[in-house]
Amino acid sequence: MMAKLLGLPVVASQQGVSVDKLIIYMHFLMGALFVGWLAYFIYALVRFRRSRNPRANYYGVKSHASSYIEVAVALVEAFLLFGLAVPLWAKAVDKFPKASDSTVVQVVAQQFAWNFRYPGPDGIFGKQDMKYVTADNVFGVDPSDPHGKDDIQTINEMHVPLVKNPDGQYRPVIVYISSKDVIHSFKVLAMRVTQDAIPGMRIPIWFRPTREGVFQINCAQLCGNGHFGMSQGRLVVESEADYQKWLASKSAAPSASSFE
User: Fold this and answer.
1) Is residue 137 located within the same domain as residue 237?
2) Do 166 and 243 fall into the same domain?
């Protein structure tokens, strides 16, 4: 209810619910502070107006109420930080899912598109090396590695299945993010994930989708004159059957490995 009231975008991941809670609680705190300080400001204008206090009082305020309020605000902020924000971050970092239980996708950003790569029918990514990176080989796949021959590459279209693992939870998605040229930022609002794409680095993130749909992928870093084009990226969360059909259609088609 509060998420709709605040105008938050649709949430489609498990950790997104916790992120929204943190945002909502922060708004509660900021709202309380705004109302409280505005009320005090009006009170001070009326209480200490010149007509009521023609002479200045050099002794100042003797009450400690303001100190108590400051301590209360600090305690609430400490709760938000150590009770919500830090545990949420720790869960994302320390409880990283196993690749064998996840859908693994590699992402290389470039001006001005998103390149996605999946392992082929053999389930193994081909070896990569920076020395192989070219305009036609943005992932730097080793051409001599047979495991890379069946890998699937797409542009601006990322697909993941919505399926439950044996533990009863939806299968997580692990995304390895890098960049071919400048710094970009992989952002999917519906999943509540954002990660900079930095040249020369491969940074992993993960999320657990909880609903089917088509969600926009944005670039959260100004990356050049065509920055707006990065918003053409789409994340498609679909059933396992539809996902397998999509993989089969891409396996039978030539790979799209560059964007010019």
Assistant:
1) yes
2) yes
If you search the block for the tokens 């830090």, which residue do you land on?
86
Enter the tokens of residue 257: 């490995």
For CA atoms 234, 13, 244, 197, the dihedral sign is: positive
For 203-251, the pLDDT digits (tens) are 999 999 999 999 999 999 999 999 998 999 999 999 999 999 999 888 7
The answer as to whether 258 is a domain residue is no
Residue 207: give the domain boundaries.
99-251
- The first and second tokens of residue 204, run together, are 């992993």
In angstroms, the Cα distances linking 184 to 113, 150, 188 are: 10, 28, 13
Do residues 20 and 8 make contact, with C-beta atoms less than 8 angstroms apart? Answer: yes
Q: Give the chain's domain count.
A: 2
How many CB atoms neighbour CB 146 within 10 A? 11
Angle at 240 between CA 13 and CA 109, to 5 degrees: 60
Is 257 inside a domain boundary?
A: no
Alpha helices in 48-189 (DSSP H): 65-78, 86-94
Q: What residue type is assigned to position 62 of the chain?
A: K
For residues 76 and 71, what is the distance between their CA atoms, to the nearest angstrom?
Answer: 9
Q: Tell me which DSSP letter residue 258 carries.
A: -
pLDDT of residue 252: 58
Nearest to 192 by CA among 23, 5, 25: 23
Specify whether 121 is located in the same domain as 151: yes
- Low pLDDT (below 70) residues in the chain: 1-5, 60, 252-260
Full 3-state SS string of 19-39 = HHHHHHHHHHHHHHHHHHHHH
